[in-house]
Amino acid sequence: MEKLEDSKVKAQITADAKEVDGFVDKTYKALARQYSFPGFRKGKAPRPVIDNAVGRDAVLASATEDLVNALYPQLIEDEKLFPVASPDFGDPGAVKPGEPFTFSVTITVKPELELSSYDPVEVELPVKEATDKEVDSQIEALLGHYKTYENAAAATKLTEGRAADLDIKATKEDGQPVASLTDDSLLYHLGSGLYSEALDKELEGIKKGETRTFAISVPEDEPAMLMADVAGQTISFEATCTVVKKEETPELTDEWVKEKLGFESVDALKEEISSSITQQKEQVIPQIKENSCALELVKRVEGEVSESLVEQTEAQLLQDFFGQLQRAGMSFDNYLMQQGIDNAEFKEDVKRQAADDAKRELALDAWARHKGIEATDEDVTMEFVRAGLDDPKKTEREWRESGRLYLIREGIIRSKAMADVLDTAKVTEVDFADREEK
């Protein structure tokens, strides 16, 4: 083994004469079974006959290919290598019966980056129990579903938190009406975000019986959902206020809770909400912890991730993504439409995610090396057993012979490393809602 630049290694492999003869013999037997040679039963043709029909060079080339393909996976396992690209065998030449055979292979392996520190990571997580503020926030949202709008006094102006019943007409520059913005009885909520801020500004302060006429130049990147159809256009409006309405939120009482929600009291409602929030936290906090710890670990990575590793990670992401789409019965075009992005944005998102994922994986690799974390043969075997396969031993053997077992080993090492990062992490519980308020 020889280490080269750019995360490459070069290995020289030698098969002794006995091993070479074994592969040559297997090749001749396979050809004798595969083809019919005049005068000989299938599988019984001697070597000179096969050489004459197929060509001796072709036979030895086939034997060489089989030998190389058999010994390369053995090299990967014996040396515990983690390839990130196809191997380069160059021109290995051809085996000769009765002689040892040596060939070389250059392999791009995953880079071994280091971390600036291997001290336990420090993260902040939400408090495990529901806080009073979280419960109050849920109750406020709940009451919002039951709020009503009552007619205000005639002199009341439209301000945030109020609504107005409008007779509104919208037309384009060519005089054509805009159906989505024209209504003879539109309940308009100021500051709802459904309409543009410019429209809010024009209508703010309007009161019963008042009519306002104005024009708005809608920007190309207008974020308001109900005005996206007229982005980049100038729209003229005529709006007459029929009445201004004020929000009426129900008072939270035992009687109201019992009548509307079926709880015996306000305390019973709060207890149920608190329990629900706590259960939700039990489900999501472990994932939040893992993501937070991984993010802190990635910040410590020294060096750049190789392009070949990012490309390999990107290819796997795309394979997994399109597999999920196929299982869901959804076309790629429908997915893009649903997400509101185009093909270029999708590709950019995947590239960015691939770079992030690759860096996270290398951070875990570095942690594992520093802590001496390994994947034993027993660990690998158990992965196949846990997969619930009909014949886990056969599948493991097939993966070993095809040189793919390193993928299982790599996954085990990273899982162990992540578990160690989580176990040793220093966690501070924080009431984030209280912090934001301060």
Fold and architecture overview:
This protein has 438 residues and is α+β, with helices and mostly antiparallel strands. The chain has helices at residues 17-34, 47-54, 56-78, 132-145, 197-203, 254-261, 266-298, 307-328, 332-339, 343-371, 377-386, 392-401, 405-424, 432-437, and strands spanning 2-3, 8-15, 101-108, 114-115, 122-126, 148-151, 162-171, 183-189, 211-217, 234-248, 301-302, 426-430. α8 crosses α10 (343-371) and α10 crosses α13. It is elongated. It starts with a strand and ends with a helix.
Mean pLDDT: 91
Task: Estimate what percentage of residues fall within beta strands.
Answer: 15-25%
First-to-last CA distance: 60 Å
Count of individual beta strands: 12
State the helix count.
14
CATH topology of the largest domain, which one? Trigger factor, domain 2
CATH class of the largest domain: Mainly Alpha
Low-confidence stretches: none
Overall body shape: elongated
Helicity, in percent?
40-55%
Count of all domains: 3
Q: Could you state the CATH homologous superfamily of the largest domain?
A: Trigger factor, C-terminal domain
Largest sheet: 5 strands, antiparallel
CATH second-level architecture of the largest domain:
Orthogonal Bundle
Radius of gyration, in angstroms, nearest whole number: 35 Å
Structural class determined from secondary elements: alpha+beta
Spell the H/E element sequence: EEHHHEEEHEEEHEEHHEHHHHHHEH
